[in-house]
Specification:
This protein is of the alpha/beta class. About 25% of the residues lie in helices and about 20% in strands. A hairpin with a 2-residue loop joins strand 22 and strand 23 (about 530-535).
């Protein structure tokens, strides 16, 4: 027997189609839930809902399995049938984490979760602690970034479906790796979303850049919030995922007394206690609002951490000074990078030229381990016209400087797939819409967007083209080639240094000091007994303490006369400052 149920306040009548038979459903109360027990149904039963006089059966908004894609019927799935072997796994604290963001479709050649399992030993040897998966919720087509998901409870079938995600998480835990999952709660995708047939999941009063806004506060919002919270709890409980990254929470419009993020944080905390497993919530937000990562008890929303773009933008515009379009127009000075490193937000209540308003507020008292630091991620690479990576734009030596600053910064460092070996493959924007009009609109929109910045439209990769997707796949054989070998060794050394150096594992605010020279183009970051000096200018000789030892250097450095070190242009050195008692001849 299986109980079917669906929230459908828009419907006057709901019927169930299961295994070819049609049954009338009942609405037993005024909460607009329609229910029916079917004796002959169970795991593997295909079903859909017939709403009023519409002859088309629609998939369940809470479907656990869409074996024929988002347009097909739902299939009953039983979570209890999977045999887990990770009972003793406990995720490491995020504060000690090295996060690695990856996209299942392009990480391994086969583009599946099972294929990605074969790369877990590599990630463990690299020193990664947390794998962050870009969204795996079912979306239209065979491939895409996943941010246009429409069946939020189902795992994208081309990735392998529900059991494959469980196999991936189980295998990662066996390797000592935690798994974070990217979820999208700010909009539904433009194609294959049938929630509007059932209820007010989306509101007309405001919109996001990607589609209608989710109903967090209007009539019916209780069940919509319940839908999203239950989705989050499902990934954490039933798939053993160790945390979630919430996409673009700045697109939420929620003026409720209890903000959705606060509600979600409380429910995840309760689940954490019930499971006796460490769980984390990470938000993506460009609000520069400390409430996002402030505990609920202190009046915040209770997220454990958030992505911090100010650090990325400040560092990127220094390494790539020609990049000053769009939001990069607000950045470009060493002073801003110094402020980002010392105080997290550059725009903390000051005027933003790009936004044409005052933006942000100081994150006073918040540990810097409540913020992730990175120089590459899917947005900052993939939203470029051709998906080119930092090493393509700034060169290998400047990419090494970026890696050193990210991995010695006071933030939780995050890497994007392939950056650790300066992968040659780009990460481009790709999609696979079966609706020809939508596909055409996406392709033309992409060309228009970058033509406005002076790009030749013919040079913009077509998002709907199969080669655009194929070109974005990592080329694993190049890990053994020349400069890729050198870069991978650099990353491994930096990760090992971070994980074994106490001074690099203190996120308390005020513990990092930065000095710099805007004209000479050098910057020094001090964290306890560790000093990081990077040289982007022509000056070659820098003062250092006499009792300092070189731990890592991106190029050959040498001592000069007295208390100084010679540092070539576009290079970085990491020093350990010793007490006199520790000095050796």
């Amino acid at each position: 027997m299986h109980q079917f149920e669906v929230w459908a306040p828009f419907a006057n009548q709901v019927r169930l189609q299961a295994s070819g038979d049609v049954y009338a459903m009942k609405r037993p109360d005024d909460r607009d839930w329609w229910r029916l027990d079917v004796e002959s149904a169970g795991p593997g039963t295909d079903y859909g809902f017939l709403v009023d006089d519409d002859p088309k059966p629609y998939p369940d908004p809470r479907s656990q399995w869409q074996p024929d894609g988002v347009y097909g019927l739902s299939r009953v799935y039983d979570h209890s049938q999977f045999e887990w072997t990770d009972a003793h796994f406990q995720a490491p604290p995020l504060s000690s984490g090295i996060v690695y963001e990856l996209h299942i479709g392009t990480f391994a050649a086969e583009g599946t979760l099972d294929a990605a399992i074969g790369k877990l030993d590599y990630l463990a040897e690299l020193g990664v602690t947390h794998i962050e998966l870009m969204p795996v919720a079912a979306f239209e087509g065979r491939h895409g970034w996943g941010y246009d998901g429409v069946a939020l409870f189902a795992v994208h079938e081309p990735y392998g479906g529900p059991n494959s995600l469980k196999r991936f998480v189980n295998a990662a835990h066996e390797k000592g790796l935690a798994v974070l999952l990217d979820v999208v709660y700010n909009h539904f995708g433009p194609s294959g979303n049938y929630t509007g047939k059932f209820g007010p999941y989306v509101v007309a009063s405001h919109h996001t850049p990607w589609g209608g806004a989710i109903n967090f506060e209007d009539a019916g919002s209780y069940e919509v919030r319940r839908f999203l919270c239950d989705n989050a709890l499902m990934w954490l409980r039933d798939y053993h995922v160790d945390g979630l990254r919430l996409d673009a929470v700045h697109a939420f419009v929620d003026r409720s007394a209890i903000h959705f993020l606060e509600q979600l944080s409380a429910e995840v905390e309760a689940l954490e206690a019930s499971l006796a497993r460490r769980l984390v919530l990470i938000a993506e937000s460009d609000l520069n609002d400390p409430r996002v990562a402030t505990p609920r008890e202190a009046g915040g929303f209770g997220m454990d951490a958030q992505w911090s773009d100010d650090f990325h933008h400040a560092l990127f515009t220094l390494l790539c000074p020609a990049e000053r379009q769009g939001y990069y127009a607000d950045f470009g000075s060493l002073g801003q990078l110094a402020k980002a490193v010392e105080r997290t937000f550059v725009y903390d209540g000051i005027y933003s030229k790009y936004r044409k308003r005052v933006h942000g507020k100081p994150p006073a008292g918040l540990s810097q381990y409540r913020f992730l630091g990175y120089i590459q991620n899917h947005d900052q690479v993939g939203n470029r016209a051709t998906g080119d990576r930092l090493s393509h734009i700034a060169g290998i030596e400047r990419a090494k400087i970026a890696a050193a600053l990210v991995l010695t910064s006071p933030f939780v460092p995050m890497l994007f797939q392939g950056e650790e070996w300066a992968a040659s493959s780009p990460f481009q924007y790709f999609a696979d819409h079966t609706d020809h009009e939508l596909a055409r609109a996406v392709s033309e929109g992409r060309r228009r967007e970058f033509a406005a910045f002076g790009w030749d439209p013919a040079s913009i990769p077509d998002p709907e083209s199969q080669p655009t997707f194929e070109n974005s796949k990592l080329k694993w054989d190049e890990v053994a080639w020349s400069e890729h070998v050198e870069m991978l060794a650099w990353y491994r050394s930096l990760i090992l240094l971070r994980r074994t150096t106490p001074s690099l594992n203190d996120g308390a605010p005020g513990k990092t000091q930065v000095t710099f020279d805007e004209q000479a183009r050098w910057l020094r970051m001090d964290r306890g007994n560790i000093a990081v000096i990077c040289n982007l200018g022509e000056q070659r000789v820098f003062p250092v303490q006499r009792n300092a030892r070189v731990l890592l250097a991106s190029q050959t450095v040498s001592r000069a006369v007295g208390d100084a070190i010679t540092l070539p242009q576009d290079s970085v050195v990491i020093l350990e400052v010793l007490d006199s008692s520790e000095m050796t001849n």
